[in-house]
Structures
1.
Amino acid sequence: MAKKHTLEKRSAPQPAYVMPPPNDDIAAHGWDLRQIREADSKSLDKKDPDKGKPIFSAPQETIKTIVRYGCDAHFICPKYLQILLDHSEELRKVTMAAAENKYRATDIDAIEATVKKLFEEVVLPDIAKNFSRISRTVAQFYAARLAHIRKFGSEND
């Protein structure tokens, strides 16, 4: 006669603050900003393995654009953003203050304000500096591409 044993259901221990769904499992993704997904009604279905598109995805208006450039166009590289933000003592301090206050909504607002400030004061200037360094090469790319198209025709011909 077979014995039936059932294990009692235990909930896993949770930290003091967890991101809202669909990003409540971000720890399983190694705390990588690239893995953060947009929350929409479709992505909140627990059975759906696709938890939504990445928050850094640039909007794609047409199928033609997606076919040409791919659907993973991002308006900023999340890894680059994470590297710059991880080095901020200011962000570390405001996050620690939020932890001390048990992650109140006002504390999350303060962290958001700090992230926006750092984007303006650190990220954008760094993007501009790096883009200035490579702008001549980008200009050469566009000139060479047009010369190629005039000589050999469009890529779509």
2.
Amino acid sequence: MKKVWVNKANSFEDAEKFDKKYYFNMTANKRLETMQILREIYSKLKGGRKNESRKRLRRVIKIIQ
């Protein structure tokens, strides 16, 4: 079972600071993996094909490197 945790913030500014700190502490690969998962979820919600978003992400990474 996957653990889920919640951060309760007193303001939107506190929530944004927490989010930035959380994502900056991740490794670059973990941030890319998280982004890709979110893209795939979005693609499924919009009715896109499964591998379509992965192809675009790979091309962008190759161009940047």
3.
Amino acid sequence: MSNEYQSLFADYDDCSAKVLKITCGEETSYLPLLIKEIGNGYKEAYSPYGYGGLWGNYNLNESDVENLRKFFAAEAIVAVFIRNSPFLENEKQWPRKYLELNKKTYQRRLKKYNDFDQCIQDFPQKVRWSVNRALRANLTCRFLPLAKCPKDNLSRFYQLYVKLMNVKNITGYLLFSEKIIFNHGQFLGNSCELLEIISSEGDNMIGGALFMLDDTGRVHYHLSAATEEAMKLQAMEFLLATSIYRYGKLGYMEIHLGGGHKLDEDDGLSRFKSKFADRKLEFHCLALVCDEVAYKTERARLPLARPSLFLISDSRGALPNPNHVKFAGQV
């Protein structure tokens, strides 16, 4: 929710970053939003890639939500899409009727261990086996704050990332550009780190991940990639185990691993992350139409390549975006 993170994705999405302040008596909450022009003087607002929602101590009631609709409509914002933060459970600050459960995410409490061996004893047997497999292959990990990370290292990580995305046939918004990867360092600096997995054969990066660090004692598993060789050597299990050990040693309280692909958790990514978690969280989204007439008019004005998507700018595009969530009955 920081200005730096919002600005990072405002630059990527070619829109502006704003924060809405909501005050009632002595209670205040803030709502960070990206504002995108959609034509004819109209706009829509949404949480950027990742998570967002309300930050503060004021919980909205149904009357507040209706007043918000009117406020946004007066600002020519026809629709609002919010991705709440599971680790904050800030979906509870909205009336339940406006929420839709999207998926489960995974989190782990961190603690200080005497050494790495003690740390891995806290993991399930399958994870311990995977970590020991990586250790037998002489894999090592190296952490680099992006403020001090050489450009070549970040470029190597990006090449791994692009190769993996191509294998998965992922295109469009989710195939991030090299520019935004580099901009993580420019905007976030020491609040973002690159963890490199180094093979035993020289200084060869075979995997890596970006972790974001915040001021509330949390670490966030952000983006990752690895070669097929690294996967066979259990490098990603080693990466997460190493990060859990390191960030606990540094005094962080929790690591949020994000979610998988399916709400029922019947997918490989959900199963992978759940092995490291001691808590499951719910990720809720929220969609508000603020100006019904303008919203319908703008949806009808241009052809929609993906008409099931809620945001108009997303519906017009031919490719998916992580903000593109389908909402039953909304469209």
4.
Amino acid sequence: MNKDIIKETLKERGSRYGEFKDFAKISQELKNIIFLNLALNTKPEYKEINNVMLEGLEMICHKLARITNGDPYYLDSWRDLSAYARLVYEELEKTDGVTDVKTTQVIKKNKKWIKSNKI
């Protein structure tokens, strides 16, 4: 790869996401918090976290670090953040034994909150 292209790419990324060393510090601190919690948690379900969940968590930390160290108004970072969560969600939907919350939709009508049958 051409050295000029690499320099140009790094310059563009630096202007978008901030200094790499600062981003790396934030990203690693976020990951350390998550993985320390996973290691210390004694609940059985935490021992079964799979590669999809782990990678999703890592990529979400990566994107959070980019947002907080760089341009928080860059839509692509937010889109990517939600996409990684969605990828994990879609994989979990295929898994036997997953749990979800049952929701009831409410709407505001005549200044009062009422249950809605629309879900």
